[in-house]
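Duplicate of earlier report; Phosphatidylethanolamine-binding protein input re-posted below.
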Amino acid sequence: MADDNAVSVSTLDFKNRFQSSGIVPEVIAALDPSVSFYAGFRAASDGHSELLVPGVSLTISEASLPIEFSVENLGNATGVTAQTRYLIYLLDADAPARDNPTARNLRHYLAGNYTLASNTSGVVASDILRTAQRLTVSPNRFFPFTPFTAPNPQPNTGVHRFIYALYTQPSRFDNAGFQSVGMDPNTANWNLSAWRTQLGLGPAIGATFFTIDTGANGGQGASSNGAVNGTSAAQTTSASLFTTGLTAAAALLGVMTIF
Ligand SMILES: *[C@@H]1O[C@H](CO)[C@@H](O)[C@H](O)[C@H]1NC(C)=O
Ligand SMILES: *[C@@H]1O[C@H](CO)[C@@H](O)[C@H](O)[C@H]1NC(C)=O
Ligand SMILES: *[C@@H]1O[C@H](CO)[C@@H](O)[C@H](O)[C@H]1NC(C)=O
Ligand SMILES: *[C@@H]1O[C@H](CO)[C@@H](O)[C@H](O)[C@H]1NC(C)=O
Ligand SMILES: *[C@@H]1O[C@H](CO)[C@@H](O)[C@H](O)[C@H]1NC(C)=O
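Output:
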């Protein structure tokens, strides 16, 4: 069953929610999405397909498999043509625990060769949000560098933030995997800025995130700064958006490369 009330999220809302969650700049320096990027999941309550609203809190079972990726406003991304391929990752910014994320970032998925899904009458719409276009990989091009590992954070390790991001794929990877440029298969302590340089990537064109609340560990965890104290996953799922003052954190982190 498809969701009957999925609505579009503007690129500005995505940007704001990455800031109000503290992900920007604590985990990634900046995010300026040109497209609205969505993942679908199966809601535990009624089994319906739901769209990942940035910041929504999922159960471990709901996070176990993305059922669809889709995108809106793809024409706003630079250098995109009908032939462009895309890569998608999922990471846990708060592994193994929110207050001591010594494995940040832990990669749960990385695969390239995504394209807009099409059939004989054109581009295929999302099953969940009719104004979005579905992204798929054909099986003969599906060589995930990091096969999908279902999120399974340990109990009492706080609120984990899981980030999906979408990039345009440099054409050299249309015929070669990421190992061809020496990418490290280890999934822990994944350095995004070093990785972008290694693969020759531009900034993410879209990104979204969900949280899994494992309890305790100070909730938001000591790793977040005082400015995000009180920004719960529940609040970020609500329609009201508020950005918290992260100037102090930005100053502490200094100049960083763009995500
Ligand atoms: C770019 O995005 C804006 C909304 O932010 C939309 O109105 C416009 O149609 C988009 N342009 C293209 C080419 O998709
Ligand atoms: C192609 O996809 C569109 C939705 O995006 C659908 O309405 C149409 O029925 C599909 N056509 C075929 C031949 O599958
Ligand atoms: C894309 O698919 C081609 C096969 O058509 C394969 O050689 C290449 O490794 C794939 N690239 C990625 C990044 O998965
Ligand atoms: C990530 O890599 C960059 C070099 O691209 C480096 O400056 C930075 O210190 C690294 N970050 C971490 C946390 O190791
Ligand atoms: C942070 O949250 C804790 C627990 O909710 C609360 O006791 C404390 O007063 C908050 N600190 C600030 C600076 O808001």
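Residues 221-259 have pLDDT under 50 and may be disordered.

Merging into the original ticket.
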